[in-house]
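> example.struct
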C-alpha cells in the first residue's frame, strides 16, 4: 500500500491529460469545504437530549463542565468553538506539515486528509451518541482540523506545476471547491437529519456516519487521481516567459520553505491575506443579522424598525436574510474562480490592488446605502466584497509561486495559512465586539455597523500598503543549483515515469470519455448544491 502512495509512483507518463487533476482536487475540496457548513448542526445539537426543547445546563455548569456533561444540552456558543478550531487547526497543520507534503506527494497527503477528516466525523458521531462534547472537539475539531489543513494544500503545488501557463485559474478551480463544499454538504446534512430524526434522536450522529462514508469514498478517489508531471514538463506549445522580460514579479528560481519566515516579502503577503480575509470573514458570520437589523420591516414591505416587529414578521425577514446569505455564498465561490483566472491576465499584485481599492469603496459605501434605505446597493456591495474575499484565497497560491518559485510552493502556502487562522479570530472579534459596544452606547440597531465598516476600510488600506511594498526577491533567498538538486532528491523526484515503471515507453494516455466522467463526478454534486442554494436565493428576491 505504501508503494502505491509514494510520490515516485504518481509521476505521469506521456499522454496524460492534465485536465484530470483539477477534478481530483475538487473531489477533496468539496468534501472538506463542509467545514463552512457545520453550523447546520448547531441547532439540532443544542437539543440533542431534549429533542423538542433544550435541557438547559445550570449556572454552575461552565464551558469545561460542558465538555463532559451528559445530563444537559450544549449551548450553541459552546458548539461554535468547533468552527473556530477548524480554521485554527487548518492554518497550523498546513504550516506544520507543508514541508512533509512536498516530499511525500499529494496522493499520500490526500489519503491522510481523508482518514483524518472522515475519521474525525466518525469520532464526532460517537461523541453525539454518548453526549460527550470533548469527543466532538477531538474528532472534528482537532483530528478533522488536521485533515482540513492537509487536504486544503494538497493540490496547490501539483496544480501549479500542471498549469504553469494558467496558475491562477488552476488554483482557483480547486479552492472554488472549498467554498462550494458547504453548498453541497449543508442541504445534504439537513435532508439526512430530517430522515434520521425520531422521537428519541435529532439524527445528527447517523448523519455524521453517512456523510463520513460518502466523503471518504470521494476523497480517496480524489487522492488516487492525483498525478505529478515529469521533471521539466511543460504544456505543448507553451514557452516560459523569459526572466526579467515583461514581468519581474514572476521568478524562474525557487526558495526553500525553511527560509520564508525571514523573508520580508513573505510577511507582506501574509499581511495582504490576513487583512483581506479579516475584512471578509468578519461580515460573513454577521451578514444575516446585519441585513435584518439595518432594514428591519422594509424587507417585507412593513414600515417598522427591527425592534418593533412581532414574531411572525421576524420569522419572515429571517427567511429573506437566509436568501441573502445564500446569495453571498454564490459570489464567494464564483469569485474564487473569476478573480484567480483574471489574475493570470492582470498579474497577482494588480489583482490585490483591485481587491483593496474596490473593496474599500464598497465598505465605505455601505453606511450611505443603509441610510438611504437602498437594499439593492447594500446587497450589491456585499456581493462584490464576498467575491473578492473568495478571490483572495484563490489568487494567493499563484502569487506565492510567482514570488518564491514552484518547488516548495505548497509548503510555503501552508505557512501562509497562519494568516487565515489569525484572521479567523481577528475579523469576527472586530465585527462582533464593535456591534456590542455600539449597542451599549445606545446607538440604534440600524446604525451599529457604520463604525465597523470604516474600521474594515482601514484594514484594507493596511493590506493595500503591504501589497504595494511587495518586490521581487534578492538573489540571496533562492536555492543554488546544488541546493535545488538536493531538494529534488529529498522530494523523490524522478525525471520521467519510465524511471519508476521500468519502461522506456511508459504512457498514461487516457480516453476523453474518462476526463468527462471525472468532471461529471464532481460537477453533478456541485450543480445540485448550486440548485439548492438558488432555491434559498429565490426567497430573497421574492
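> example.seq
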Amino acid at each position: 500500500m505504501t508503494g502505491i502512495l509514494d510520490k515516485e509512483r504518481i509521476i505521469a507518463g506521456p499522454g496524460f491529460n492534465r485536465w484530470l487533476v483539477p477534478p481530483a482536487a475538487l473531489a477533496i475540496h468539496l468534501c472538506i469545504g463542509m467545514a463552512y457548513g457545520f453550523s447546520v448542526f448547531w441547532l439540532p445539537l443544542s437539543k440533542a437530549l431534549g429533542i423538542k426543547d433544550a435541557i438547559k445546563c445550570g449556572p454552575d455548569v461552565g464551558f469545561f463542565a460542558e465538555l463532559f456533561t451528559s445530563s444537559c444540552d450544549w449551548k450553541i456558543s459552546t458548539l461554535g468553538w468547533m468552527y473556530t478550531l477548524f480554521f485554527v487547526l487548518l492554518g497550523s497543520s498546513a504550516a506544520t506539515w507543508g514541508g512533509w507534503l512536498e516530499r511525500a506527494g499529494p496522493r499520500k497527503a490526500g489519503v491522510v486528509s481523508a482518514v483524518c477528516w472522515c475519521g474525525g466525523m466518525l469520532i464526532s458521531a460517537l461523541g453525539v451518541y454518548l453526549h460527550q462534547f470533548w469527543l466532538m472537539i477531538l474528532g472534528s475539531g482537532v483530528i478533522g482540523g488536521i485533515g482540513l489543513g492537509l487536504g486544503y494544500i494538497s493540490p496547490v503545488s501539483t496544480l501549479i506545476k500542471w498549469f504553469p501557463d494558467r496558475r491562477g485559474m488552476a488554483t482557483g478551480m480547486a479552492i472554488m471547491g472549498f467554498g462550494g463544499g458547504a453548498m453541497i454538504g449543508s442541504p445534504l446534512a439537513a435532508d439526512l437529519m430530517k430522515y434520521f430524526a425520531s422521537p428519541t434522536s435529532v439524527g445528527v450522529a447517523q448523519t455524521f456516519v453517512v456523510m463520513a462514508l460518502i466523503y471518504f469514498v470521494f476523497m480517496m478517489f480524489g487522492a488516487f487521481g492525483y498525478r505529478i508531471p515529469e521533471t521539466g514538463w511543460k504544456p505543448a506549445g507553451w514557452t516560459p516567459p523569459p526572466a526579467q522580460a515583461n514581468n519581474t514579479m514572476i521568478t524562474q528560481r525557487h526558495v526553500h520553505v525553511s527560509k520564508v519566515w525571514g523573508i520580508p516579502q513573505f510577511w507582506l503577503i501574509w499581511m495582504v491575506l490576513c487583512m483581506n480575509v479579516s475584512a471578509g470573514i468578519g461580515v460573513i458570520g454577521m451578514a444575516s443579522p446585519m441585513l435584518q437589523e439595518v432594514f428591519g420591516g422594509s424587507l417585507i414591505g412593513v414600515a417598522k424598525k427591527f425592534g418593533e416587529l412581532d414574531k411572525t414578521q421576524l420569522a419572515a425577514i429571517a427567511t429573506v436574510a437566509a436568501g441573502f446569505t445564500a446569495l453571498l455564498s454564490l459570489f464567494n465561490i464564483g469569485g474564487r474562480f473569476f478573480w484567480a483566472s483574471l489574475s493570470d491576465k492582470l498579474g497577482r499584485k494588480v489583482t490585490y490592488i483591485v481587491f483593496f481599492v474596490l473593496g474599500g469603496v464598497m465598505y465605505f459605501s455601505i453606511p450611505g446605502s443603509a441610510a438611504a434605505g437602498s437594499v439593492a446597493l447594500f446587497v450589491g456591495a456585499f456581493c462584490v466584497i464576498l467575491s473578492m474575499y473568495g478571490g483572495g484565497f484563490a489568487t494567493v497560491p499563484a502569487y506565492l509561486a510567482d514570488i518564491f518559485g514552484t518547488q516548495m510552493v505548497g509548503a510555503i502556502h501552508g505557512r501562509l495559512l497562519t494568516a487565515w487562522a489569525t484572521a479567523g479570530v481577528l475579523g469576527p472579534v472586530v465585527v462582533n465586539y464593535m456591534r456590542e459596544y455600539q449597542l451599549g452606547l445606545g446607538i440604534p440597531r440600524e446604525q451599529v455597523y457604520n463604525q465597523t465598516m470604516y474600521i474594515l476600510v482601514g484594514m484594507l488600506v493596511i493590506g493595500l500598503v503591504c501589497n504595494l511594498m511587495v518586490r521581487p526577491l534578492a538573489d540571496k533567498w533562492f536555492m543554488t543549483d546544488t541546493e535545488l538538486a538536493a531538494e529534488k532528491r529529498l522530494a523523490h523526484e524522478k525525471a520521467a515515469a519510465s524511471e519508476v515503471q521500468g519502461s522506456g515507453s511508459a504512457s498514461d494516455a487516457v480516453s476523453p470519455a474518462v476526463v468527462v466522467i471525472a468532471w461529471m463526478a464532481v460537477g453533478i454534486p456541485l450543480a445540485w448544491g448550486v440548485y439548492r442554494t438558488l432555491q434559498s436565493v429565490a426567497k430573497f428576491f421574492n
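> remarks
The chain has two domains: 19-233+494-536, 248-480.
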